[in-house]
Amino acid sequence: MTIDELKREALQLDPSTRASLARDLLESLDDLSEAEIEQLWLAEAERRHHQIISGAVETVSMEEALSRARAARR
């Protein structure tokens, strides 16, 4: 089973079961070592870098990001 298949299956669960699964998955991350956490952050930074380079995502200035965040809170 691929990650995408697993996600599709999980999203079909009732909300209470999904919440329990999410809680269990998040708690499992508490057991990671500092080195494992660092590797995850590096992988995430690389993923985001590739999204920017490929044009898959749009970058905005800090001022624009803050403006959008403030507008979304209203």
Helix-strand makeup class: mainly alpha
For the secondary structure, the number of strands is 0
Average pLDDT reading: 95
In the predicted model, the low-confidence regions spanning at least 5 consecutive residues are none
Radius of gyration based on Cα positions: 17 Å
Order of helices and strands, N to C? Answer: HHHH
Helix tally?
4
Strand content: under 5%
What oligomeric state do these chains adopt? single chain
Keywords:
single chain, 74 residues, mainly alpha, 2 domains, 4 helices, 0% strand
Task: Give a description of the structure.
The protein is mainly α and 74 residues long. It folds into 2 domains: 1-31; 33-74, no CATH class. 77% of the residues lie in helices and 0% in strands. It is built from 4 helices and no strands. The protein has helices at 3-11, 15-29, 34-54, 62-73.
